Amino acid sequence: MSAWSESMVRVGAIFTKELIQMRRDRMTFAMMLLIPVIQLVLFGYAINTDPRSLPTAVVTEEQTPIVRTLLTALKTSGYYELVSIISDPRESAALLARGEVAFVIQIPSGFTERLIRGERPQILIEADASDPAAASNAIARAETILMRALRHDLKGSLAYLAPAQDPIEVVVHARYNPEANTQYNIVPGLLGVILTMTLVMITGLAMTREAERGTMENLLAMPAQPFEVMIGKIAPYVAVGGIQTLIVLLAAHELFNVPFAGSLLLLLAGVVVFIIANLAVGFTFSTIAKSQMQAMQMTFFFFLPSLLLSGFMFPFRGMPGWAQVIGEVLPLTHFLRLIRGVMLKGAGFGDMRQAILAITLFAVAAGILAMVRYRRTLD
Amino acid sequence: MSAPELAIDVRGLVKRFGGKTAVDGVDIQMPYGKVWGFLGPNGSGKTTTIRMICGLLHPDAGEGRCLGFDIRTDAMSIKQSTGYMTQRFSFWEDLTIRENLEFVARLYHLPQRRALVDNTLETLGLEHRQHQTAGELSGGWKQRLALAAVTMHRPRLLLLDEPTAGVDPQARRDFWDEIHRLSMTGLTVLVSTHYMDEAERCDRIVYLANGRLVTSGTVDDVIDASGLVTFRASGEGVRELMEDLRAEPGVEHAAYFGAALHVSGADRAALMRAIEKYSNVSWEEVQSDLEDVFIELMTRAGADERLHG
Ligand SMILES: Nc1ncnc2c1ncn2[C@@H]1O[C@H](COP(=O)(O)OP(=O)(O)O)[C@@H](O)[C@H]1O
Ligand SMILES: [Mg+2]
Questions:
Q1: A223–B79: do the CB atoms touch at under 8 Å?
Q2: Among all residues of chain A, which has the CA nearest to that of B110?
Q3: Structural domain containing residue A105
Q4: Stretch (H or E) spanning B302
């Protein structure tokens, strides 16, 4: 019997043991499957960066058909919910300050008259700037909504106004979000975040749990090589990562209608490498940590920069140089490029080779570090 | 191989933890096929020595072979043919009894795994409980399971670290019967223990104190070598004498044995001078027993470290 197949038999022994222990640890297993669901709900639904129905106050003294047309257009766009129509600008300022409305739209007196005279009257949109990102889409669309409504309305005797470049002037403090963080962008990225968080943590506990329960001495007294223990211990979680991937991809498709432009096979190949990279990181932590508590802390210290510096939370190009350098090392950064590239842009293997290579390198480096750090004795 | 007739052949083993020397120059030359007892108070270095012998700890100094394999460089070969039962139960409590045995059988790549595990369960008498998790077993059953699990791969050497601690007398007796049965099949057994009666079941004992090997040999050898003389006092009022006797020069230790008092010392003349003063009770010389010798050895070795694990 060759050394290789004997080795595989030992890997199989440890694999089976871990599989049983994982199945029996219901709490952890449930958590591994619940976390993707919870995060999908939180990031996919609750944390909506394109919010609708923002409370809006309108200040106007006019009730002309054109003004009514404009207000109806704002309302039906879905972005604005007209909660009050008032005539005193000071009252509107107070509403905004108290946060009762997100926008105040001011239509000055004489608006209709000046519009008819072709004097390009102004409409002023004041936004609650305390959360500019939340309102940016509503602001960005305001002008289009208003213009479209006017073009539709300015017919017959008023048709002469329509061809004029712009019959009114909309004054807004438009803020522009270059990466347009919508669910299309977030849901695929979320897969990377979920895999990083859960898989690093779960293998982080792999060796420390043996040490804390006193079973480590027994394991070390048996003739298993470090790499056999590592492979046997992380293999069951490749399957768990696969299930998590399935959940998120199904949700992306069914619930969030995220398009899938590229090759599923290419994406899955990338996912497998990424899963292994995270499991290897976790296993490395578990060889360094002295307790399960320490392993959890290490997981946290790995997860935080991954979350913040990978381009998930903030546009990667907007980060300062040093942060980009750290980001380039993290596997999540490359995974985000991969999954967004494949799903949203239909990127092929050629485009994604660098990302896959970077993740692979990281996995190999983490694996080697784990083997160097693995304690073969109780010293 | 220097001495292939020796199962364990280690010299000058030293192990330090931080500034503390846990094992301080231990030599053991143990032939094949024997049952040796490893004795000494808690913290004397028994566990640490066993761990060094089977390659679980690197010695800071010293060298040696176990089953002919270098303990420093060939731990993997030692592990293949050694069964090591840890002091604390170290099988997986969240696996069932059967799953634990199957794990061991898989890891050692034992042939006919199913049948082997079935047989082991039958011999253990745990067939009907095979699907319970190991954590549910009582102390005595855990020990038996552990012994069965560490012998399943037919090791040539068995290292048992306090296998009977906290186990009731009947279970202890059964356990020792099993050890002797295994020894009869040619296994070499090194077993650490606290119990004197267990020491007397061994072919030879090795006594450690403060990390040093203090004495070794058969029970009789050890008693003779101690040169300890023991007198037994009995009669009315004997119990009140102990404190006074302990203070006498020549008395190295005094202890109650039921209604009687044992007084021991290495210097026969001094001891006799001491007990002459207490002629109101009757004295007779008795053979020192192992317990007298161990208490004596502990006293001589100085600090009793029974507070340590
Ligand atoms: N891993 C360790 N770290 C620090 N000290 C240890 C360790 N293992 C044992 N010791 C110390 O070494 C001494 C010998 O311990 P041990 O070999 O367990 O003794 P025994 O098995 O005879 O009770 C004790 O003082 C113990 O506290
Ligand atoms: Mg011990």
A1: yes
A2: A9
A3: 54-175
A4: none
B28, B197 in Cβ contact below 8 A?
A: no
Give all strands of the β-sheet with A169-171 in edge-to-edge order.
A80-86, A54-60, A103-107, A122-127, A169-171
Cα distance between residue B83 and residue A235, in whole Å: 28
The per-residue pLDDT for range A38-75, each reduced to its tens digit, is 888 877 775 555 667 788 888 888 888 888 888 888 88
Walk me through the domains of chain B, giving residue ranges and CATH numbers. Answer: 3-217 (3.40.50.300), 223-307 (3.30.70.250)
For atom 2 of ligand 1, which residue has the closest CA? B17
Domain boundary among A175, A201, A234: A175
Pairing of strands A54-60, B61-66: unpaired
Chain A hits for B88, Cβ within 8 Å: 214
**What is the DSSP code (8-state) at residue A159?**
G
Considering only the beta carbons, identify the residue of A9, A377, A379 that sits closest to B106.
A9
Q: Does B85 touch chain A (CB under 8 A)?
A: no
pTM for this predicted structure: 0.80
Give the ligand whose atoms come closest to the C-alpha of residue B163: 2
Give the CATH number of the domain where residue A99 resides: 3.40.1710.10
pLDDT tens-digit series, residues A154-212: 666 656 655 556 777 777 643 223 334 456 778 888 999 999 999 999 999 989 999 99
Strands in B282-286's sheet, in edge-to-edge order, are B253-257, B260-265, B229-234, B282-286
Q: Which residues of A touch B16 (CB under 8 A)?
A: none
Q: Is B45 in the pocket of ligand 1 (CB under 6 A)?
A: yes
Length in residues, chain B: 309
HSE value, Cβ hemisphere, 13 Å, CA-based, for B294: 21
Instruction: Choose from A4, A6, A17, A225 for mutation: most chain B CBs within 10 A.
Output: A17
Does residue A215 sit in the same domain as residue A349? yes
Q: What is Dmax (Cα atoms) for chain A? A: 96
- B55 Cβ partners below 8 Å, 6+ apart? A377, B66, B71, B74, B75, B76, B78, B79
User: B203: which residues sit within 8 A by CB, 6+ positions away?
Assistant: B34, B35, B36, B218
How far, in Å, from the CA of B309 to the mean position of ligand 2? Answer: 7
- Choosing among A7, A215, A229, A231, which should be mutated to test the B contact, i.e. which has the most B CBs within 10 A? A215
**Shared-domain flag, residues A157 and A301:** no
